[in-house]
Amino acid sequence: MEFSQRDFVFVCGGSIPITTPVALRWDRRNDEKAASCCKLLIDGEGDGIKHGDISNLIADMRPATFGLAGEDVYDERYRKALQLEPSNFSSSFCPYTSGTVDSITQILAPGLGNGASSVRAELYKLNAQPSGFFRAHVDTPRSPSHFGSLVVCLPVRHAGGNLQVRHNDKSMSFDWSTNSSANQPSIQWAAFYSDCEHEVLPVTSGHRLTLTYNLYSVAPDQDLSKPTDLELPLIQQMELVLNNPDFLPKGGYLGFYTTHAYPHSSDSFSISASLKGIDKVIWQGFQRLGCGVCMRPVLDVARQFGRQGNSEDARPRPVLGKYLKLTTVDGTFEDWNGMESVMFDDCYNSNLVEEGIGFEKVLWINRPTEEKHREAQIAYTAQQYGNEGSSAFIYSWCAIIIGVPPYSGEHGGRMRLEKTFEERTRDWDDPLCTVSFLPK
């Protein structure tokens, strides 16, 4: 089964022609200012403003902060922008009626079957950048179901301010400046996964005016129904492999390192509703084909213990933490026994638990993600630059473990597994005794 995980989409964007001006209203900071001064009509013609004075908006906005070490920090060397909270403004733009959320759902949150999860867009901030910027950063997850961000650029004249989004050595740039726009005025937008690094380049003139939304995955109310056909090429490859009687005829285990980072420290984390891109395809595809699936946190102990030698046997390898039981097909959460912290200093103190199988019996489909992405996943989000300070959730390097049932010629294929592993674990007095070595 061959595929390129770098070919899977991590960002999408588009434009929406303006048929009626976008109305923007906000609260006054100065009570002496007339209420009529706190309104803009944006149509994209000329400087973009049909009615109102954008300088009034700028005067009523506050400096934008960013998250660092669990706190909201203001530092113009890192981020130079202005902002308004949702409670202080309103906009006539709707990401649902404009079709934006539908496009995001199809591209960034596709599902298998009619019961696929839906996307909820929650207004987060109004930002203005007159000669501003935002250095490269990764967003802070707002909840276990927060999977991405949507940035909507209103058609106000400006130059510069390109949005650049990166993931797994791939990069996408969005130029929404007036010089790059089409003849017909339009609203520009981009959506991307929350673990993608992104930055806003300096605005050289005018005002870059954007609405930012947090994107949440909403689990379906009904059980996932089996699709009539599995047309994705990767799913077809999975089915061909599983239908081969020579492939793991007695059953076994496959491992897949997730290509995205996930905030999993909350007991309310719903895996199937939060997975992104190819990770979601792997999870749902193997589950549809009768395999058991579960997710485990993975620690890179090489940083903690150092390299003890040049041989493969002596070199420290990643370690699997406590296990996560199989979630049911409807996406409900069964049990989370994962570690509360995946920081390397905690390796000595964590009560690691090992399944009845060793990693030498797991056939790995892919390799771990690149070093830079791995570091971002393992660190607390509170220690990363982000859109807002938080210490409630952590990123970790995760792997999907697939339990492959035995091949049975009598039944014309493989029996469906109810669970990935047998429920037997082994506790050790010395947590280091549970270290297992992953093959490179």
Question: Would you kindly provide a written description of the structure presented here, covering whatever features stand out?
Answer:
The protein has 440 residues and is mostly beta strands. Helices cover 12% and strands 33% of the residues. It contains seven helices and 28 strands. Strands 1, 5, 8, 10, 11, 13, 14, 15, 16 and 18 form a ten-stranded antiparallel sheet that branches. Strand 3 and strand 4 (49-51) form a beta hairpin. It is elongated and about 80 Å long. Residues 2-6, 222-231, 301-310, 322-356, 372-386, 389-396 and 422-440 have low confidence and may be disordered.
Brief account:
InterPro entries: Oxoglu/Fe-dep_dioxygenase_dom (IPR005123), Pro_4_hyd_alph_FE2OG_OXY (IPR044862). With 440 residues, this protein is mainly beta. The protein contains seven helices and 28 strands.
Radius of gyration: 24 Å
What is the terminal-to-terminal distance?
18 Å
Helical fraction equals 10-25%
Largest sheet: 10 strands, antiparallel
The count of β-strands is 28
What fraction of residues sit in β-strands? 25-35%
Structural class: mainly beta
Shape: elongated
Please give the count of helices: 7
Family: Belongs to the iron/ascorbate-dependent oxidoreductase family.
Protein name: Fe2OG dioxygenase domain-containing protein
Organism: Cladorrhinum samala
InterPro entries: Oxoglu/Fe-dep_dioxygenase_dom, Pro_4_hyd_alph_FE2OG_OXY
